[in-house]
Write a structure and sequence with these properties.
The chain is mainly alpha-helical and about 150 residues long. The protein is about 80% helix and about 0% strand. Helix 2 runs antiparallel to helix 3 (about 45-60) and helix 2 packs antiparallel against helix 4 (about 65-75).
Length: about 150
């Protein structure tokens, strides 16, 4: 059953996101979320886990927005290859930054976990995770803004 669901989702993604740069930007963001959630699996301290899980929820809430930007960009200037459509370079740049910022947030969460296990002081690391997550939100908002501006 899951095999068929994955195939249907793949076809839906191909239709909405294409097979080019917009699909890759979406998939990269999704992989970043997966990495962040995988890092959560190893957190033993309940307080730290709860703090990092709140950030994870905020980051996960961005996925539909990233998908909407990627789908909108695909609809406006379709991509089926490696080339970034010139009119939407700033959108792609913001999406790329969001993926990089998400990877940095996952890395900061992993470091926070290590600090908590080693020193018992994870709160300082959580602030770093929050700062990184705020950058992800800023990058997604920038992609949305630039895409909206390109339509006018």
């Amino acid at each position: 059953m899951a095999l068929f669901a994955a195939a249907r989702q793949g076809r839906k993604d191909d239709t909405e996101l294409g097979k080019g740069v917009w699909r890759r930007a979406h998939d990269r963001f999704t992989r970043g979320l997966d990495r962040y959630h995988q890092m959560l699996e190893g957190v033993e301290d309940d307080a730290l886990y709860n703090e990092l899980a709140l950030v994870a929820n905020d980051l996960s809430a961005l996925l539909p927005r990233v998908r909407a930007v990627c789908a909108g960009a695909q609809k406006q200037l379709p991509s089926s290859g490696q080339d970034i459509p010139g009119g939407l370079i700033a959108v792609h740049r913001a999406l790329s930054r969001s993926g990089n910022s998400l990877a940095a947030a996952a890395e900061a969460a992993a470091m926070s976990r290590l600090e908590g296990e080693r020193w018992g002081i994870a709160s300082a690391g959580v602030e770093n995770v929050r700062r990184r997550a705020a950058l992800v939100q800023d990058d997604v908002a920038e992609a949305e803004r630039v895409l909206a501006d390109s339509r006018t």
